[in-house]
Amino acid sequence: MRVISTVSEFQSALDHARLSKTVGLVPTMGYLHEGHGSLIQRANSENDFVAVTVFVNPLQFGVNEDFSTYPRDLDRDVELAKHSGADIVFAPTINEMYPNYPEALPTKVSVSKLSEVLDGKSRPGHFDGVATVVAKLFAMAGKVSAYFGEKDFQQLAIIRQLASDLSFPVKVIGCKTIREADGLAASSRNVRLTQDNRRAALVLYKALQLGKELVESGENNSITVTRAMESLIKGEVRAELDYATCVDPKTLLVPDVIRNDVQLLVAAKFSDVRLIDNLKANFPEPINRAGGGVQNNDVVKADSLRLERG
Fold first, then answer.
1. Which structural domain, as residue segments, surrounds residue 257?
2. Residue 129 neighbours by CB under 8 Å, 6+ apart
3. Reported pTM
4. pLDDT tens digits for 183-205?
5. Which of 28, 90, 204, 209 is 20 to 30 Å apart from 176, CA to CA?
6. Is residue 48 within 8 Å of 144, Cβ to Cβ?
7. Phi first, then psi: what are they for 178, rounded to 5°?
């Protein structure tokens, strides 16, 4: 496996690979963990050649955010990437990606609407930074299949929209969230949690599970679902709630009435560490006596009792 640091080397390596191979791309901000490893492994299983990028992108960090303290360990990243099946690691410097940094980049990419809610509302400009660096990487990479984790659900939706709108020859593939044994979503930021905050952070997944139970039992009031998740997180004294919500997975907008599957999303800070998580909730299909369909639990129970009684 090779480690390269220049755009020209990266482009040349992928162009050469594409002559006879399919190419998978796994963009990361480094400090790789099991979740990144799963992305690389999937890319490896579906392609002949896999490129991993390691770049902590300054454009997506706001004022007083953790760019300077964001964990970095390139040697460790290279070993994990190699072990997971990568063929190259592209680890550019900031000035390789943005030659005039820290001057503002004259050109930026912005995906409206999807970027204006949730994390986009809490972190103004964050997704412009994400979209800009991803657009640059896609332009460098050419025709590839690109793998992103579903843990960053809003980011994934934005990148899919970006690739479609700008006609990049890139197939964007979402991969399931990898969780630690106790349910905490794998994240590079987890290493910065104190022991007490690490335990407290489990409330995020518990809140998502509660919301999922409500939706899948037939609760169709989005406010009821949201308030239940909020209440659980607020009950954890170490958690500073940012948001807890349920949204349409395509538009990221909150439905007045839940009629279809929704994505549950939460975000909170534990001291200076901000964590996000999400979970899909499948809303029960309406009763369809003529053509079948899933009935709600009460109807199923009632029907079962009628059958038992003849």
1. 188-281
2. 57, 58, 59, 60, 61, 108
3. 0.89
4. 999 999 999 999 999 999 999 99
5. 90
6. no
7. -95, 130
Tokens 């709108």 locate to 165
Do 11 and 97 belong together in one domain?
A: yes
d(CA 91, CA 3) in angstroms, rounded, equals 7
Residue recorded with tokens 């919500």: 245
156 and 15 in a common domain:
yes
| Tokens representing residue 69 in the block | 């303290």
Cα 129 to Cα 97: distance, rounded to the nearest angstrom:
13
CATH classification at residue 237: 3.30.1300.10
User: pLDDT tens digit string along 38-81?
Assistant: 999 999 999 999 999 999 999 999 888 889 989 999 999 999 99
- Distance CA(6)–CA(55), nearest Å, equals 12
Together in a domain, 163 and 23:
yes
Nearest Cα neighbor of 60 from 155, 172, 161 is 155
Which residues are marked as active site?
36
| 160 domain-assigned | yes
